[in-house]
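cron nightly-structures :: item 1 of 1
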Amino acid sequence: MKVGERRRKLKMKKNEEIKFLRNIKIKKILIKIIYVIITILILYNIIFLIHKSITQKEYLQIFGISFLTMNGELMEEDLKDNDLVIVKQIDEDEIKIGDIIAYNVNDKIRINKVFNSYYDDNIRKVVYITKFNKNLQPNIEKIQINQIIGKKVINIPILGAVIKILQTKFVSIIVFVILCISYSYNKYLYAKKKERSRKLKKNKAR
């Protein structure tokens, strides 16, 4: 075999090894990313379930920040269906005409735009009139400050659909099963490691 041909083959072999190692590295990175995403989703589900059992709220609220999902297309100019809408608790003097707010009405959560506000002499409180972007007329409800969950900070497309799925009972069962399997697997690995360590010590003693 000629020297030039041998070098060429060695170079090809080296390139193949580099490509193989690179592919392994990419796969490891992808696995880590998937693992991190799954861990975050599981943690969200656990936190949501604990929060719901304590507060009886159908949404997650942490330090005055609430995570809600936009349902429907009536706010389409500002929000799309299945957007994740993050809102922040605010004081009464922070609410302005045109702000997008989330509030409770008849045990339902709505996300609307503030159309008007005025002082109601009958109840001696400021009330807010809201409106969907696609509706010509404002909503009939008079919203008070204690009904308001918060004012929109940011909305993230599609992520609201993911949040809705994560908050279902079916996903909660899956999360519970994953945690049980993970616990059993880690317990098995720990037992195997302990057994291996015991055997090594026994062999050294001989």
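cron nightly-structures :: done
The chain is about 50% helix and 25% strand.
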